[in-house]
Recover the amino acids of this structure.
């Protein structure tokens, strides 16, 4: 890259990450099984799994369909299931953390801004009191296969990552640092790879899944991007995905897996 780094599309980022040497294998543990998600806020969606495809049906009929999916497991009985569905004229990113042993789940539902929305300036958004990113996200919780427990025992928001600087080696050619600033924002920087020299501070969300296992979600504002990874501080591994527009014409989306070997570089202690 030149001394002046350039922003690239998510599709170009996906090309830079491939081939991905550190990906976790797709697991077929759910093939032939059905899991129903009972949401704490009400409603349920049944998911019927095949080896590489799942079918879903909402109990109120608002959503029905099927799509290819990827399922991985950083830890036994805790799975990340990821797919994209197309409804209401939009592509929706769906990521499910299925904690089978605890009988609970977290669902992350995301959507990208329209082309017109991306043309709005950050200053205008700030003056209007709106998020600086147009990437939308919902984080929902509930129980697996037991409606009576839908309002109990959820994964919880956490501040345990705040103050950490983590280094993520996604491949021999792609290395990033994350600095977790507070409960709402983090800073990322590319040390090596197709985005070398780029950095920014973006909106993020942290969810505690199990001891030393966290779900981290981020929403970028310059190039509209939804990122999501499970971070295992004990095993020094992460696994997740990046979702965004493949090109500059806003017609195709890219949803590609990312996994890393990671380590804590430093930890800042909060001052009074």
């Amino acid at each position: 890259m030149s001394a002046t780094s350039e922003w690239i599309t998510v599709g170009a980022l996906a090309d830079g990450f491939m081939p991905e040497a550190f990906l976790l294998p797709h697991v077929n543990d759910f093939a032939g099984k059905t899991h129903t998600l009972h949401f704490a806020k009400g409603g349920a969606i049944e998911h019927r799994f095949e080896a590489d495809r799942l079918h879903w049906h909402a109990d109120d009929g608002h959503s029905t369909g099927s799509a290819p999916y990827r399922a991985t497991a950083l830890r036994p009985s805790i799975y990340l299931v990821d797919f994209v569905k197309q409804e209401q004229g939009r592509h929706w990113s769906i990521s499910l953390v299925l904690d089978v042993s605890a009988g609970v789940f977290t669902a992350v539902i995301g959507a990208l801004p329209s082309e017109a929305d991306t043309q709005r300036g950050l200053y205008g958004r700030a003056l209007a009191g709106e998020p600086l990113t147009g990437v939308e996200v919902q984080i929902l919780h509930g129980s697996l296969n037991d409606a009576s427990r839908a309002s109990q025992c959820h994964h919880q928001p956490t501040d345990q990552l705040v103050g950490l600087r983590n280094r993520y080696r996604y491949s021999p050619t792609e290395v990033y640092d994350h600095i977790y600033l507070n409960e709402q924002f983090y800073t990322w920087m590319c040390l090596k790879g197709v985005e070398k020299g780029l950095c920014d501070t973006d909106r993020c969300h942290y969810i505690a899944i199990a001891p030393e296992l966290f779900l981290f979600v981020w929403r970028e504002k310059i190039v509209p991007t939804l990122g999501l990874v499970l971070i295992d501080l004990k095993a020094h591994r992460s696994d997740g995905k990046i979702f965004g527009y493949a090109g500059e014409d806003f017609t195709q989306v890219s949803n590609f897996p990312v996994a890393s070997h990671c380590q804590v570089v430093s930890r800042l202690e909060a001052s009074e």
Remarks:
- The chain has a mean pLDDT of 94.
- Residues 10-267 form one domain.
- The chain has one domain: 10-267.
- The first helix runs from residue 10 to 17.
